[in-house]
Specification:
The complex is a heterodimer of chains A (about 150) and B (about 90). With about 150 residues, chain A is an alpha+beta fold. Helices cover about 30% and strands about 40% of the residues of chain A. Chain A has a single domain, classed as Molybdopterin biosynthesis MoaE subunit (Aldehyde Oxidoreductase, domain 3, Alpha-Beta Complex). The longest helix of chain A has 18 residues. The radius of gyration of chain A is 17 Å and the shape is elongated. Chain A starts with a strand and ends in a 17-residue tail after the last strand. Chain B is of the alpha+beta class and about 90 residues long. Chain B has a single domain, classed as Beta-grasp domain (Ubiquitin-like (UB roll), Roll). Chain B is about 20% helix and about 25% strand. Chain B has 2 helices and 5 strands. The longest helix of chain B has 11 residues. Classes of the chains: A alpha+beta (about 150), B alpha+beta (about 90). Chains A and B meet through α2, α3 and β8 of A and α1 of B.
Chain lengths: ~150, ~90
């Protein structure tokens, strides 16, 4: 199961998607939105995806995990739109015959997701908002330029 | 040739535009496209090093040659805060 959804993630459904009587371990990672970051009180987080490519990259991550670990099934679901603090923005479930493979593959999947899957996070806090991952470098966090067209 | 551009997140907001078409000379590369965009929109210039590119939903290098009707996405750093280009480092 690979999905980008605009509603709350059903963790039980993601878990069920990797269920298999042949497995001895299921590892579930739930990424939730923090109510604070870098000393700021976060009021809400907003995610935006390039959905077609995000799904393709998620499938690649699943395939890469299968190549490297003897896992049985993997599911990756990311939420987009406004996600209130405390709710899940991403859920990854991995089942395997033994726990070590499930743990390692799950960690690999979330690390790779954050590196390559084209999904962006905008943090709204008291007094402003910023695209996370974009604030390093130079002008990403500068006020918006004049309309381009 | 004409390519279809897609902008996301901080770039979409900066340009106030999520999709556009752009005319380029035949055999133009991603780098040629970027230079043309920067000439038209100087506010993009400083963002150059941080942006990755995808053509038809696959990451590409800047010397990738474009073809008519390609979908070119300009990809700002993704939400993990890690630079997308790290994908090219060996695991």
């Amino acid at each position: 199961m690979y999905d980008v959804v605009a509603h709350p993630i059903d963790v039980a459904a993601v878990t069920a998607a990797v269920a298999d009587a042949a497995t001895g371990a299921t590892v579930i990672f739930i990424g939730t939105t923090r109510d604070h970051n870098e000393g700021r009180r976060v009021t809400r987080l907003e995610y935006e995806a390039y959905p077609e490519m995000a799904l393709a990259e998620m499938r690649k991550i699943g395939a890469a995990a299968r190549q490297r670990w003897p896992i049985t099934r993997i599911a990756i679901v990311h939420r987009v739109g406004v996600v209130p603090t405390g709710e899940a923005s991403v859920v990854i479930a991995v089942s395997a015959g033994h726990r070590r493979a499930a743990f390692e593959a799950c960690q690999f999947a979330i690390d790779r997701l954050k590196e390559i899957v084209p999904i962006w996070k905008k943090e709204h806090f008291e007094g402003g908002a910023v695209w996370i991952g974009s604030q390093t470098g130079t002008a990403f966090d500068a006020p918006p330029a004049k309309p381009a067209r | 040739m004409i390519v279809r551009l897609r902008f996301f997140a901080s770039l979409r907001e900066r340009l106030r535009c999520s999709e556009a078409e752009w005319t380029l000379p035949e055999r133009a590369t991603v780098s040629d496209l970027w230079n043309a965009l920067c000439a038209a929109y100087p506010q993009l210039v400083t963002l150059g090093p941080a942006i990755s590119f995808a053509v038809n939903r696959e990451y590409v290098d800047r010397d990738h040659r474009l073809a008519h009707n390609d979908e070119v996405a300009l990809i700002p750093p993704v939400s993990g805060g890690t630079h997308v280009r790290r994908r090219r480092t060996p695991d």
